[in-house]
Amino acid sequence: MPRIYTKTGDDGTTGLLYGGRVPKDDLATEAYGTTDEAVSALGLARAHCSDPTLGEEILHLQRELFVVGADLATNPEERDKLTPGVSLVTPEMVERLEVRIDRMVAERPLPQVFIVPGANPCSAALDLARSVVRRAERHVVALERADRTVNHHVRLYLNRLSDLLFVLARWDAGESEPASR
Questions:
Q1: Residue 22: which H helix or E strand, with range?
Q2: How far apart are CA 131 and CA 27, in angstroms?
Q3: Is residue 12 part of a domain?
């Protein structure tokens, strides 16, 4: 079995997909590192979910976030090595999130008050994941503002994903969350 450590990051840099190295505190590293953190937060939510259908949906979202992270971690100068004409994060991925949100809200409208998260472990972990996804989105915006090459659909996906996670948390919590005062 190969060693897990390579020592290549000992100099404070990390590798990009398709080559190149950037500092570990680079804007892109912050963005894809935060998506990785969101994957872990969703794993916590999945571990606490008693609804197997919700657990499967969370697993699907975790896998999609790996795609988001890979998109952000790809060396911008080597993006042409990706399948021609296809971005890693696609408009269809964003649209699927929108359809899911619209369907859920149509079935059960959201409360019109601010809520205090934490009705149960699964909904609390979904809210944690939502806040981590929002941070990833802020990092992507910082990349864009710095005129860095970013797939536009990544920001849209993260924005819709945080909305979906909010809805999923409210659904999982049911009526047991108190309103803020």
A1: strand 21-23
A2: 18
A3: no
Residue 85, pLDDT > 60, answer no
Q: What is the 3-state secondary structure (H, E, C) of the chain?
A: CCCCCCCHHHHCEEECECCCEEECCCHHHHHHHHHHHHHHHHHHHHHHCCCHHHHHHHHHHHHHHHHHHHHHHECHHHHHHCCCCCCCCCHHHHHHHHHHHHHHHHHCCCCCCCECCCCCHHHHHHHHHHHHHHHHHHHHHHHHHCCCCCCHHHHHHHHHHHHHHHHHHHHHHCCCCCECC
- Which whole-number Å values give the CA distances from 158 to 21, 64, 68, 155, 165, in the listed order? 25, 10, 8, 5, 10
Is the model's pLDDT at 63 over the cut of 70?
yes
Does this model's pTM top 0.85? My answer is yes
Within a domain: residue 70?
yes
Q: Is 138 a member of any domain?
A: yes
Q: What is the mean pLDDT of the chain?
A: 88
**pLDDT digit string, tens, across residues 117-144:** 888 999 999 999 999 999 999 999 999 9
Domain span holding position 110: 22-74+85-173
